[in-house]
Design brief:
Layout lengths: L7 H10 L1 H8 L3 H19 L7 H20 L9 H5 L4 H13 L1 H4 L7 H22 L7 H25 L10 H14 L19 H10 L2 H4 L9 H10 L5
Length: 255
């Protein structure tokens, strides 16, 4: 069996824009791929919207297009045609569409060059982006609400690891990603994320939604030992073929 024709464009978007998630989805059962590819394609499109132009107004308009599409899904009416929105509209509940709209709204931080206001602002950004995405993926694959807190903790830890890997590129783009860029500040952030990194007790059918967190613990441990690795772009890559294969074969998330 192969992917439905409508899902193939989404798979191509993920393959090009988010290779790590693409690998995790390709390791998942076929039924899960048909769910995860449209969701992750949306994430690719929304996350890159602020970066395709230097004009803040145009970037805001691109984000608003996706927010309007998600609002249409939430309202249950006709949804604009697009290679991502069309398959996604058949998957999301109104509540899930609202969550993803909130995730798109959080990406407005990426449009501008202002620093986060405080630690609470950074935490909210990570939960609304990494947390909403991972929990929606888990829920679409059948996870029950009792797992949400643990999933969001895992997503926070994985989100911090991914964010720290992105710091050099953000600095090059004249952003101010870190509230405290000193070694002590970077280590404190990594420690806080490491404390929340845990393996959720979740139905087997939903576990593929957790796989983007593979290797997050290795990255955070490296930052705690060697905080200079962040700005020097020497961080552990996280999802590697070996860790992914180990996770799939043993059924235990390789953190």
């Amino acid at each position: 069996m192969s992917l439905p024709e409508a899902i193939i464009p989404c798979a191509r978007i993920v393959e090009k824009g988010d290779p790590d998630r693409f690998r995790t989805v390709m390791a998942a059962p076929l039924a899960a791929r048909a769910v995860l590819f449209p969701l992750y394609a949306l994430n690719v499109e929304v996350s890159r919207a602020p970066w395709v132009t230097q004009e803040a107004m145009i970037a805001e308009m691109r984000l608003q297009w996706w927010r309007d599409a998600l609002e249409e899904m939430a309202n249950g009416g006709p949804v604009r045609k697009h290679e991502v929105t069309t398959p996604l509209a058949g998957l999301l509940t109104p509540a899930q569409a609202h969550l993803l709209d909130e995730s798109a709204a959080a990406r407005r931080w990426d449009v501008y060059k202002d620093a986060f206001e405080d630690a609470a602002h950074l935490d909210a950004y990570l939960d609304q982006t990494a947390g909403h995405l991972m929990w929606t993926a888990c829920e679409l694959l059948g996870a029950t609400p009792t797992a949400e807190e643990a999933v969001r903790d895992l997503a926070y830890g994985a989100g911090v690891a991914a964010f720290l890997r992105a710091v050099p590129a953000l600095v090059d783009a004249k952003r101010v990603p870190l509230l405290d860029g000193t070694d002590a500040g970077v280590m404190a952030l990594a420690r806080r994320a490491r404390e929340r990194l845990r393996r959720p007790a979740i139905d087997k059918g939903a576990r593929a939604a957790l796989w983007p967190a593979i290797g997050a613990g290795k990255t955070l441990d490296q930052v705690i030992r060697d905080p200079a690795a962040v700005i020097e772009a020497r961080l552990d890559p996280g999802v590697t073929p070996f860790r992914l294969a180990t996770t799939v074969l043993l059924g235990r998330l390789a953190l």
